[in-house]
Amino acid sequence: MDKTRVLFLCTGNSARSQIAEAFLRAYAGDRFEAYSAGLEPVGINPLALRVMEEAGIGMEGQRSKSLMEYMGRMHFGYLITLCSHAEANCPAVFPGVGQRLHWDLEDPSAVPGTESERLEAFRRVRDRIIGRIVHFVEHADGRWSEEGKQDLPRPCGQCDKSTVEPSGGGDV
Prior knowledge:
This protein has four helices and five strands. The chain has helices spanning 16-28, 46-54, 84-89, 115-139; strands spanning 4-10, 32-38, 76-81, 97-102, 154-155. Strands 2-1-3-4-5 form a five-stranded mixed beta sheet.
């Protein structure tokens, strides 16, 4: 059985997309090939590594990559943008992408405060990503449940803005 390729995209490929790549690989690597990229890659944030280590998921072999490394070179069943900047700036025509989804998640790297406060922001985002991926894996055949649709990944541009909180969508 061929695995479905999933590309997670955010601005810096330093936290959200890296966490999503690692968790999808660990949780459903038998069904999906996980990849991540950024519009402006900046290196993996050490706090992302730390919160994934806390969850028992390693990120060995992962590195920050540019979207251009994949553009037109691979087919992806799904392209999932993880922030509004990536959604707005990802080319509308991305060769070799089946379905585009958007999960608007806060950038934990942008949260000010003490290391403890910043670490808590990374944990919060990690946990939201884990919840989203669990739902994604359960519903990746394209059948989106009307009941609980607020918690499921949605195709880009089809979010019901009235059900999406400014912090990044309903709780998962």
